[in-house]
Design a protein that fits this description.
The structure holds 2 protein chains of 2 kinds. Chain A is of the alpha+beta class. In chain A, about 30% of the residues lie in helices and about 25% in strands. A 5-stranded antiparallel sheet of chain A has the order 4-5-10-6-7. In chain A, strands 11-12-13-14 form a 4-stranded antiparallel sheet, sandwiched between helices. In chain A, strands 1-3-2 form a 3-stranded parallel sheet, with helices on one face. The radius of gyration of chain A is 18 Å and the shape is globular. By secondary structure, chain B is of the alpha+beta class. Chain B folds into 2 domains: about 70 residues, Beta-grasp domain (Ubiquitin-like (UB roll)), CATH 3.10.20; about 70 residues, Orthogonal Bundle (DNA polymerase, domain 1), CATH 1.10.150. Helix content of chain B is about 35%, strand content about 15%. In chain B, helix 2 crosses helix 5. Chain B is globular. The chains are: A alpha+beta, B alpha+beta. Chains A and B meet through strand 1, helix 2 and helix 6 of A and strand 4 and helix 3 of B. The complex binds flavin-adenine dinucleotide and FE2/S2 (inorganic) cluster (FES) (2 copies). Flavin-adenine dinucleotide binds next to strand 2, helix 2 and helix 7 of chain A.
Amino acid sequence: MYDFTYARVSSVADAAKQLKGDDDAKAVAGGMTLIPTLKLRLAKPSALVDLGGVKDLAGIKVDGKTVTIGAMTTHGAVAASAEVKKAIPALAHLAAHIGDPAVRNRGTIGGSVANNDPAADYPAGVLALGATIVTNERQIAADDFFKGMFETALKPGELITAISFPVPEKAAYMKFPNPASRYAMVGVFVAKTAGGVRVAVTGAAPSVFRQKDMEAALTKKWAPDAIEGIKQKQDGLNSDIHASAEYRAHLVGVMAKRAVQAAG
Amino acid sequence: MPQVSLTVNGKKASAEVESRTLLVQLLREKLGLTGTHVGCDTSQCGACVVHVNGKSIKSCTILAVQCEGAEVLTIEGVAKPDGTLHPMQNAFRENHGLQCGFCTPGMVMSALDLVKNNPAPKDREIREWLEGNLCRCTGYHNIVKSIEAGAAAMRK
Ligand SMILES: Cc1cc2nc3c(=O)[nH]c(=O)nc-3n(C[C@H](O)[C@H](O)[C@H](O)COP(=O)(O)OP(=O)(O)OC[C@H]3O[C@@H](n4cnc5c(N)ncnc54)[C@H](O)[C@@H]3O)c2cc1C
Ligand code: FES
Ligand code: FES
């Protein structure tokens, strides 16, 4: 790791000020992605601004039909939350299957969504549930947020403060985990929401995407056999040592059917 | 250089570190607590698991400076001061839960965090909990047995 200066801040405003004042400074949340990246010398930030001391960034609020999760809430806290389990059990299930317990005790929802790893789990939940990403500057709809591989709508120095999830009628997430890393080889999140049926796929392509053919079929009939004949196109899907594009395309269909089944 | 002050195994400690110093480096190299191991240094193996403020974390993937003011528990803080093993440690010995012993400190620290929330974990729950703890010797079977036995001994 290259050396850097370290700053612990106690407010979002203070963090934003430090990040805006130095283009090479980076925020650190749980560090579960950033610290391994620094060890590999894939990044050389001048300074790390630690969000760990900002008290009001962690926590879960349920308010009528919306679950709002603070950016610094750990995967472990979401997985264990009685409120999330009751309102959106699929989201608690998703969080409970990220990495391993020690990773879940540090990794945060804000860090995961900001990072937009092609194989990360949360982006599928955020997109399928039609969540809103709340930053220190504005609110961004999930449909406008994920831009490409490791790319989001966040501007330099802009920080996620919370993510708001509308409570769906039904939802479920199924992933085919990479047997070594547990990241999603393919993960499909299906949701029947007030705004219609939404199906989001992670792990398969450079960035999370909506499977509109499946959405249309499930709108007509919410049942696993409704998407039986839908073939995910291989074009643009990832092909690597873990799985070919052909295999990933096949897994999209399998995971989607299992998710609809699980959602009931 | 930054100064970091924290509590390790109930004792106050402080040291001068670089911003990039990892918690595991502070523990091993500055405080001489070499029970916490580095197996992979890539956040995969769990040999470095310690508790920070009561939760199991990988000490190779957290900066020492992020632990300012924290309570850290390492494998050295688990046995009684007179050397009597903790029931979980004893269960690993009784059940042949280790061979080379490299993964064992992390296994014990992970097991203690599991039992905190789930005092009577079942075989499957133990295996799922150990997702981030790799052992290259035992094949896990006796580790799972050890944790079941250790949890049972802790309930007594
Ligand atoms: C062994 C291992 C297994 C894993 N398995 C999985 C898995 O199965 N599924 C999965 O989805 N993930 C997995 N992860 C990744 C994990 O979920 C990370 O916690 C997550 O991707 C990043 O969150 P973090 O809080 O650790 O962020 P950090 O590593 O601290 O930060 C990541 C990036 O996001 C930026 N950032 C952080 N917080 C904010 C914010 N509030 N606003 C704006 N930018 C911000 C940082 O500047 C940095 O660029 C795994 C990680 C490890 C080490
Ligand atoms: S040394 Fe920390 S996880 Fe392997
Ligand atoms: S006992 Fe040798 S690695 Fe586990």
